């Protein structure tokens, strides 16, 4: 099996090790392979989404990265029916978008949010 080298910060390493122990993976590589399989499945499912859709988009981020979410959402205001924002203890924020629009544009929005390392979690749920 080919070896692929990746760089991870301490936070991700600690999370990885915690998940490995918690879920009984034999090593980091096994856990990373499982995570990649999940990502591949999710990407395949998103490719099947087309046409005009209604969806929920959940994004979790640090309060300090609010500027990125605000900038990104400004490009997609025509599809955002409603946005809910909540600030949690510890400087974490949640954004919930109710979307109605073209699937390809919604996927662009999701991709932009997912590619920003300042966002902890981004999940699209098609209704």
CATH architecture of the largest domain: 2-Layer Sandwich
The ordered H/E elements are: HHEHEEHE
Backbone structural class: alpha+beta
- Low-confidence segments, given as residue ranges, are none
Describe what this molecule looks like in 3D.
There is one protein chain. The chain starts with 9 loop residues before the first helix and ends with a strand. It has 2 domains: 10-46; 51-126, ACT-like. Chain A, domain 2 (Alpha-Beta Plaits, 2-Layer Sandwich), CATH 3.30.70.1150. The chain is of the alpha+beta class and 127 residues long. The protein has helices at residues 10-23, 28-47, 66-74, 103-115, and strands spanning 52-62, 80-87, 92-102, 119-126. 44% of the residues lie in helices and 30% in strands. The chain contains 4 helices and 4 strands; from the N terminus they run H-H-E-H-E-E-H-E. The chain is globular and about 45 Å long. The protein has a 4-stranded antiparallel sheet, covered by helices on one side.
Which terms summarize this structure?
single chain, Alpha-Beta Plaits, 44% helix, alpha+beta
Short overview:
This protein has 127 residues and is α+β, with helices and mostly antiparallel strands. 44% of the residues lie in helices and 30% in strands.
């Amino acid at each position: 099996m080919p070896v692929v080298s990746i760089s991870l910060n301490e936070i991700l390493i600690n999370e990885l090790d915690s998940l490995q122990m918690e879920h009984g993976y034999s090593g980091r590589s096994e856990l990373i392979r499982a995570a990649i399989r999940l990502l591949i499945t999710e990407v395949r499912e998103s490719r099947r989404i087309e046409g005009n859709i209604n969806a929920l988009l959940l994004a979790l981020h640090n309060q300090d990265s609010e500027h990125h979410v605000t900038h990104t959402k400004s490009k997609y205001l025509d599809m955002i029916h409603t946005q809910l924002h909540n600030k949690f203890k510890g400087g974490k924020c949640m954004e919930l978008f109710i979307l109605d629009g073209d699937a390809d544009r919604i996927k662009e929005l999701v991709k932009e949010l997912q590619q920003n390392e300042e966002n902890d979690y981004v999940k699209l749920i098609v209704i």
